[in-house]
Predict the 3D structure of the following.
Amino acid sequence: MHAESPADAALLAENAVLRTRLEEAEETLQAIRAGAVDALVVETSTGPQIFLLQGLETESNRFRGEILAQITDAVITIDDDQRVTYLNAAAERQYGVTASDALGRHRSEMYQYCWLRPEDEANAMTALRETGCWRGENVHLKRSGEAIHVESSVSRLHAADGDRSGVLAVIRDITERKKAEQGHALLEAQLREAQKLEAIGTLAQGVAHDFNNVLGTIMINAELARRDASANNQALMSLTEIEKASRRARDLVQQILTFSRRQVTSRQVVSIPSIAEECARLLRAGLLGGMRIECYCAADTPSILADSTQLTQVLLNLGANAAQAMEGRPGSVAIRVDGITLDETSARSDPGLRPGRYARIAVSDTGHGMDAATQRRIFEPFFTTRPPGKGTGLGLSVVHGIMQTHGGVIVVRSEPGKGSRFELYFPCVNDVPAAPDTIEAAGPASEGRGRHILYIDDDQPQLFASKRMLERWGYRVSAYFEQREALDAVLSGKLRVDLVVTDFNMPGTSGLEIARAIRDALPDLPVILISGYINDALRTQAAAAGVRKLIAKPQDQEELRDAVQDIFYPPAKTPDRNRP
Amino acid sequence: MRKRIPTADTLAAFEAAAPDRDSARYVLRLYVTGTTRNSERAIVNIRKICEEHLQGRYDLEIVDISQHPMLAEGEQIIAAPTLIKKLPLPLRRFIGDMSRTERILLGLDLRKTTERAASGKTH
């Protein structure tokens, strides 16, 4: 060891640095000569400038490079250690990586693959070994966790320079194509289902038509017999029962016709929330104890073009179906109404849906749910899971028919033991506000001119039939099963009506009691009483209770119409075109 | 990490310094020009060297100076690809496609480590 002066040490250090720089310069020259350098960097007054040594690459190599950069399929080379040695721009996009990040890394850090069938892997390895190439489909799991369906063409590389040996993979993302194929298969299944329902509908319509003729004969003859037997009370009672049964049969026929979409409907711009809330109220009154009905309507629910009577029927049928699914056990039925905008992705949840804005009604229950086999058949007419005699199997068929005529879509989600959810999608009416009074929008032909009638009857089919009829004549109808609830609503002023029509014979509060309460609190509000059996005693009591009209039940359509018209347009006076 | 500077060329001093070298963290920066042929190769080759000889104790940063030449400023880079060993000191530069593995291992002071590792493995 020699003692060195500081000056000597500085000189030695400077010498070492210079030697290193010289070695680096020599190394750079060697690398350039060997073609291992792509660019030179020259320091200028404005900063470093890059000069690419493009002359080192042949024209054909550059052209090939350009092709690989432009190609839309992912091109990747992988060495024998499974390290990525090349990837083009399409591969960077497909797998969400950059070349600088992926090069030299293990292929599994870019994507992992899984085979569609267990035997695929062995087949691919055999093909690569024996023929040097393999072509097929599998699933790639990207680093982001997203799975894509791919079609790969893999071939062994035998590069002359050795550092590119391994395999070359050309990988095409066919996820969208696969989805389209699946969607197509679903559409085909849906089409087959629609054709089957159409065929059943045609058959049902034919039967309904003939059945209607038979019913017409029965009803006409019952009416004639009633006139002939006017003095025979026993015969009259029997005839009344025949007529009642005939009307029920007629309602069934109407439902079949609704399913087979032969019924003429009148559609107008309607707001769903008011209809949904009224249906929820009717269902609450009609359902057995222990069940809860919830109704939530979003304020921004768009308006739709619909037949409000049919919409009511859809909701009541779904509500009744949900209640039946609970088989008498405690549970809840929820009706939710809102607006929803479906984009390309969310519209894929059902083949019938298209992107766009919809009004959505979701009716869900906590009932027993359905398996897939039941779900496939629920819209078939006469299909029911209930015991014989307990259901017609027409409720959901009617819902299906009505949704078809409205251009709507039904999406059913259900699992055994987990309840059911029916989602109805109605195309919304763009930029058209809902008519504040749906009856006013019905046109000048509507004689009711939107006059508001409170209709009370504990018999559900009768109540809805009468409500439908009155609405068809242009009246606005609030229908109630529950007498007490109806009376409270009208007496408290929550419900402002122009006329009350009530059944006489009801459990709890009778029609007469309702008439008396109204006479005392609202003496100007007219009341029509309907009874299955009218005698002198009832006439006297009705007159004392302030009842303006007494109609025999089952009332003829025209009879009810005349009675209501007589209230609003008394025959002795010139019809007043204004509201009373 | 504070480096011990060998003050004598004795075997004992070298052996004392060896564990530090084996565990030292390497900070490397590779300057490339996009996905040109040699730049791609340099990335593949240096990553392979790092994975084989420095697994778990290296930081490799890839800097693309074709898009941002200013990133090369102050680094005394005259060609691309260039690899700079920032740490452990001393600083070292390597030019080319990093295919001369032996030379790079020597320059990274990993040759001795490799030999020792190789003696304990069966290939």
Q: What stands out?
A: DSSP finds 16 helices and 20 strands in chain A. The mean pLDDT of chain A is 80. Chain A touches chain B through 38 residues (CB under 8 Å).
